[in-house]
Structures are given as C-alpha cells and as structure tokens.
Amino acid sequence: MEWFNKHVSFITRLTFTQKHITQAAISLLVLPAFFSSYSVQATTEDRFTEYVHQPIMVNYANEKINIDGVPNDADWQHANWHPIDNMIIGAAIDKNDFSGRYKLLWREDTLYLLTEVIDDVLFDQTADPTVLYWDDDTVEVFLDEDASGGEHQFSHNAFAYHVALDRQVADFSTQKQAMTFNEHITTVWSRDEANPQKVYWEMAIKVFPDNYNDSLTAFDDHQVSPVTLSGNKKLGFMLAYCDNDGSKTRENFIGSHPIKAVNGDMNRGYKDANVFGHIILTNKQN
Ligand SMILES: [Ca+2]
Ligand SMILES: [Ca+2]
Ligand SMILES: [Ca+2]
Ligand SMILES: [Ca+2]
C-alpha cells in the first residue's frame, strides 16, 4: 500500500483517456514534420563547414627574382594582384591605416611572394623575435606544403611564418616554444620611391614538408630537403598582416581569405590549416 501511495500520481498520469489518445495521435502526425524541418535547418546552419575558396593560380618565374624589395623584376609584371582585405581582428579601418595586396610566382626551388603594404605607422615594439611577435607589424605567411589541412599549431603539418620588419621569421616549434625559421624565408622590404607610404615586401620561400625536424637547422645534412616544386602542384596558402601603430597589442589583423568564426573567433589560421585557401602552380611555358 505504501508503494501504491508513493506511485499513485505516476500511475494516474499513465491512465489514458480518450482525450490523451487523440492528442498522442496528433503528435505522431506532427513530430515527423517537425524533425524533418529541424534537420534541414541544422544542415544549412552548420558553422563548422569552412569556406571553400577558389584556388589561386601561380605563374612560373622565368628568372630568379632579385630579393631587394624592388618589384621591377620582369616576371612580377605577369603575376596578378590578390587582395588582403578580410578583417580577422579589430574594427574597420581606412585605407591609409592599412591596405595591402600580394602576388605569387614559383620556380622549382622557391615560392616567391611580393606583398604591397600601406601602413601609416611601422612599429616593432619587442626586439626579441620570439616574444609577442604577433603584436608587431608583421606579414604572416601560412603554408601547407601538401594541402592536407588540419591542426598545425605545434607541428609542421603547416607553417604560420611571422615575417617581421627586422626580417626575422617566427613560428611555434614542436616543443611548443616560439622559434625562428630565418633560413626558410629570405626577405627584403623597401619604400616606393614615388609614394613612400607604400612598402614592397619581397620574399623567397623554401617550401618544407610536414616532417621538417625543428631540432636541426634548415640545411643540416640530416634535415629533410625543401620540396622541388612542379606544375599542377597544389599547396595550402593564406596571407595576413598584423597591424599595430603603437598600441600594447596589435590593433588589426587582416587576411587574404575570409574565415568562419568559432565561438566568435576568426583568428584560427595559426592552428588550423583547414581555413587556408589553395594555390596551384601553373605549368612552365616552354
Ligand atoms: Ca626585386
Ligand atoms: Ca596602421
Ligand atoms: Ca600538411
Ligand atoms: Ca602598423
């Protein structure tokens, strides 16, 4: 009896009346329609589907590019400009605060990058190239040799090279420490003679594969070699600029490719190569 008293309200709820049966029947008719509209909504609002970018075609350089910060090499004239115009961190800015664009070329042993930047204040706050380098004015080159995508913050599945004004190149190591990779990128920048607001930043990049060993120097006898580039090769690539004009931390971070926010955060390139775009090396013209 004690058991019955304890459970009586539950048993009462289970007692079907004609009204309950009618309600249940209506629910069975309505529920499938509800779940089918829900599944359509869930698919179209899937925020973890990354943007799909049109690949950028990269022309072959008939001659080695002279890395002097002056873009008068003949081969640059047949490379297209691509914009750096997606705000990843910070409020909207005017074109004198920052505007930028870039070109790419390739030869068998080098990927060439020319970045044209207008930045009102060039600022290198921290001298040590491995400390807070993302808060200095920096061109950040994201490169995934085999276009695999995926996590890369503390591996070399992809690189996020921070190229600083003092020409030092920093990224995280497999030991989860910031280190320099100065042998990977040779760079020189200079101001345009006619319009000194404009800076040309030329780079020659050695493309290292995923199994790069950062406990050795880049050209150690036991180090993996940079890959030899060839026509039709596809790489993961993205470019960004960290702009600071005198603040404690960077004011803006502007990228070449839009990135979907996860929990409001679009700054995902330094750890996830899935947000990169792709470049395809065009065949050499004979
Ligand atoms: Ca040059
Ligand atoms: Ca600026
Ligand atoms: Ca990779
Ligand atoms: Ca700046």
TrEMBL record:
Entry-linked CDD domains: DOMON_like (cd00241)
Domain Carbohydrate-binding: 67-283
Keyword Cytoplasm applies: no
Pfam families (alphabetical): CBM9_1 (PF06452)
SUPFAM superfamilies referenced in this protein's UniProt entry, alphabetically: CBD9-like
InterPro entries: Carb-bd_dom_fam9 (IPR010502)
Keyword vocabulary terms for this entry: Signal
Span of the signal peptide: 1-42
Listed name of the protein: Sugar-binding protein
Organism: Shewanella japonica
